Amino acid sequence: MRSIKLLLSGLVLAGAVAVHAATPDDAVNARKQNFKQIGGAAKAVGDTLKTPAPDLATIKKSAATIAGLAPKVPGWFPAGTGPDKVSVKTGAKAEIWSDNAGFKLAAANFAKAAGEFKVAADSGNLDAIKAKMGALGGTCKGCHEKYRNKDS
Ligand code: HEC
């Protein structure tokens, strides 16, 4: 039994943190962790692209992480997890729910850009990687500007 539990917890650690969480606060904490993973992967790509010899393995791994998580974003914002509903700190703006179609569109643009970035990463073509990384970064910014509170 113990080994099964350990195995299961290992599987959870390896993937996205489930946002079908027990409480709204748990859902916020889980999505923040998932975004941290996305942010860490994007930073790893940005950092290595600044070096004279970018590390393709880092880029591929990070692209896979981002492309794996991106399609899940809409599911991280169930109703009742907005800033007026939870007791933990959240950068999520109420507009995510009041303009849900716009938020879903921003998430879909992000998922598409993440998929294209992964294709570029897997190709190993640095020019394509840089172009698609730029496009991907634009979709982060596009969503954050509208739906995320900077100072939280
Ligand atoms: C569809 C909208 C959307 C997209 C696209 C998006 N984000 Fe975010 N991001 C958010 C929201 C909303 C929060 C605030 C979540 C909260 O605090 O509850 C957030 C939070 C974060 C955080 C803070 C996590 C923490 O520690 O609290 C980081 C880092 C981050 N995003 C990075 C990124 C990066 C990098 C990308 C693109 C590669 C990206 N995000 C794309 C909406 C988005």
Name the features.
152 residues, Four Helix Bundle (Hemerythrin (Met), subunit A), 6 helices, 68% helix, elongated, binds heme C
Please characterize this protein's 3D structure.
This protein has 152 residues and is an all-alpha fold. It has one domain (2-147): Cytochrome c/b562 (Four Helix Bundle (Hemerythrin (Met), subunit A), Up-down Bundle). Helix content is 68%, strand content 0%. The chain has 6 helices and no strands. The chain has helices spanning 2-14, 24-49, 56-69, 95-98, 100-123, 126-147. α2 runs antiparallel to α3, α3 (56-69) packs antiparallel against α5 (100-123) and α5 packs antiparallel against α6 (126-147). The longest helix has 26 residues, at 24-49. It is elongated, with a radius of gyration of 17 Å. Heme C (HEC) is lined by residues 28, 31-32, 35-36, 38-39, 42, 66, 73, 90-92, 103, 106-107, 110, 136, 139-140, 143-144, 147-148.
Summarize the structure.
By secondary structure, the chain is mainly α.
Strand content: under 5%
Number of domains: 1
The CATH class is Mainly Alpha
Structural class: mainly alpha
Q: Can you name the CATH architecture?
A: Up-down Bundle
The residue-averaged pLDDT reads: 91
Q: Determine Rg (CA atoms, Å).
A: 17 Å
Helix content: 55-70%
The biggest sheet amounts to: none
Bound molecules: heme C
* CATH topology tier name: Four Helix Bundle (Hemerythrin (Met), subunit A)
What is the chain-wise order of helices and strands?
HHHHHH
Q: Could you name the ranges where pLDDT drops below 50 across 5 or more consecutive residues?
A: 6-13
Number of DSSP strand runs = 0
Number of helices: 6
Distance between the termini: 41 Å
Query: Can you say what the CATH homologous superfamily is?
Result: Cytochrome c/b562
User: In one word, what is the shape?
Assistant: elongated
